[in-house]
Amino acid sequence: xxxxxxxxxxxxxxxxxxxxxxxxGFGYWDAARENWPMALAMAIGSYAAGSTPMGGGTVxxxxxxxxxxxxxxxxxxxSFAVQSIGMVSxxxxxxxxxxxxxxxxLRGAMLGALVxxxxxxxxxxxxxxELWVKLAFAVIWGSFGVLHLYRxxxxxxxxxxxxxxxxxxxxxxxxxxxxAGGLAAAVTGVGIDMVIYAALVLLCRVDLKVxxxxxxxxxxxxxxxxxxxxxxxxxxxxxxxxxWLAAAPVVALGAPLGVFIVGLIGRxxxxxVVAILCVVQFVWTCSAEWDAMGQLGLLMALIAVGAxxxxxxxxxxxxxxxxxxxxxxxxxPAVHTELSGxx
Length: 343
What we know:
- This protein is mainly alpha-helical.
- The chain has helices spanning 5-25, 29-34, 36-51, 57-67, 72-96, 103-124, 130-155, 166-188, 192-203, 208-233, 240-265, 267-288, 290-342.
- The protein has one domain (5-342).
- Belongs to the 4-toluene sulfonate uptake permease (TSUP) (TC 2.A.102) family.
- This is Probable membrane transporter protein.
C-alpha cells in the first residue's frame, strides 16, 4: 500500500501546482478569496464524499441553491466541477490502498454512464425547469435519508465482498449507470453514486466496505464525463469557476481524509448523521419553494419519495430471495456429497 500511495501524492502535487499557477500566475486569487464560504462548506462536503455514498455536490448543491439562492443549474455544474477533483482524489486514494471494489457492477455502470450522462446533459437537463431540478435533488437524497433511518442496522450488517453473479451485476450496473447518469447525475450533478450503492447493498447484499468505495469511484468517473461534455459544449455557469477555485484545494484532501477517518470511527455513525441531513435538506427545499410548489407540489414530492422507497424495498426483497436461493444451492451439493459418502 505504501508503495502505491506515491501515485496519489503525485496527483495532489500536480493539482496544487496547477491551482497555484491559476491563482498566483493568472491573477485569480481574488476570485478564490471572494468565494471562501464555499470552501468552508466543502470542508464538510468533502468528508461526506469520501466516507459515504454521497458526492461532494450533495453538500455543494444545497449550499449554493438554498443558502446562497443561486440557480439550480449552477449547483449542478459546480457539483461536476468540484467532484472532478475531490472524488477523483478519493478514488485514486482508494485504488492505491487496494480497497476491494464491486468491479463487475462498477465496469457496467461506467459504460452506462459514459453513454447516459452526455445524452442527459445535452438533451434532458436543458428541458428540466429549475424548480424541478431542486425537487429532483431533494427527492433523491430525501429518500436516501429515510431509507437509512429505518434500514441502517440491516445495511451495516452485510458481509458479502462482491456480488454472487458477475454477469448479472455487470448488466445491472450497465442499466443503472445509463439511467442514473442520464436522469439523475446529468440533471443534479449527483445521484449515480447513490443508485449504484443502493443496488449493491439492497440487491447484492454487499458489505459497506465495498459498496461505498465503489460508489465513490463511479461518481468520480461520471463527474469527469460531465466536465468533459460541458467543456466541449461550452455550457458552464459563469460563477462555477470562482467557487471551484475556492473549494478545490479543500476537497482534494478532504475526500481522501473521509475515506481514511471512516475506517477508524465506523460507517454507521457517519451514515446516520448524513441520513438526518438528507431529510433536513428535503424539508428545507420544500419550505423554501413553498410559494412555487403549494400543497399539490408538496404532495407530489412526498409521493416521489414514497415511490423511491418502494423501489428500494423491491430491490431489498429481490436481494433477499436471491440470497436465499444462493444459500440453498450451496447446501444441496453439500448434502449430496454427504449422502454419496455415506453410501
